[in-house]
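Run log, item B.
One chain of 114 residues. Sequence copied directly from the ordering sheet:
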Amino acid sequence: MVNKYVKTKHPDRAWLTDRSLKIYVRVTRRYINGSILDCLDVASVEAPEKSRGKGMFTRWMDKAEALAAENGMTVYVESILNPRLFGFFQNRGYVSSTVSPDSMFKVVKRSTEA
């Protein structure tokens, strides 16, 4: 999935840039809620202080979730360090991982399954 957008040596993982955001993503498989699921991992997000609070990450997550849904994937956000982001992700329907409490996931459905 990532390889559609990035031409790298490792097409299953990449640093993506969107305006001033730098986001590290990878395609993985994770054991979640008793099943092995294909996942789009959001592993790292870097945003300059001046860019925060302007909705850029929200818009990027909208696109990432839509792309994951198109491909039947779960979105997994790994190692959340900013406590403010827990509320952000909870409001988007994410739940905490039982394996890693500082990580959250959301099983997104294809629009035809809604």
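Observations after the first pass:
- Helices lie at 56-70, 84-91.
- The first helix runs from residue 56 to 70.
Flagged for discussion on Thursday.
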